[in-house]
Amino acid sequence: MVDETSLVLDTDHGLGEIVIAPEVIEVIIGIAASKVDGVHRMQASFTNNVTELLGRSVYGKGVHLTIDEEGIKVDLYVNLKYGVSVPKVAMQVQSRVKQQVLFMTDIELDEVNIHVVSLVPEKTEQLDLEELFENDEAENE
Q1: Residue 115 belongs to what domain range?
Q2: Cα 115 → chain centroid
Q3: Cβ count within 10 A of residue 36
Q4: Residue 137 domain-assigned?
Q5: Is 133 among the domain residues?
Q6: Could you tell me which InterPro entries the record lists for this protein (predicted)?
């Protein structure tokens, strides 16, 4: 979700403006955050989920960008893997996001706020019922 329409980079080279859509920043942030170890996935909205069901990836999901006179503020809504250090992973996400946005756009973020929405446990293996009762069948023969 975006509060402003575009970001204009400071350019002193006389060749013209460089304008970056806020959606581009959201995608950079979403990808950077999801690559941090311990992040299971970004929290999606209902419309993001519908879009993904239709086969399109939504890389900016879970990212809320606010651009105003105070600067650029990011709110990230993440699902973390169960068992990780929540503060450690959150700080890594903040650092990675700030670095990646600065590297790719030369834009410095003023705030990166992490909202941990849930912890997701690892998948438990499904029991193979045939294998489970294999010994019982052998004993009955």
Answers
A1: 7-123
A2: 11
A3: 19
A4: no
A5: no
A6: Asp23
For residue 138, which phi and psi values (nearest 5 degrees)? -65, -35
pLDDT digits (tens, 9 = 90+) for 103-123: 999 999 999 999 999 999 877
Q: How many domains does the chain have?
A: 1
CATH of the domain at 76: 3.30.70.1350
Pull the structure tokens for residue 46.
Answer: 């209902």
Is-contact 20 107, C-beta < 8 A? yes
List pLDDT tens digits, range 44-92: 644 444 444 444 455 777 999 998 888 999 999 999 999 999 999 999 9
CA distance 99 to 76: 15
Q: What is the pLDDT of residue 124?
A: 57
Question: Does residue 18 form part of some domain?
Answer: yes
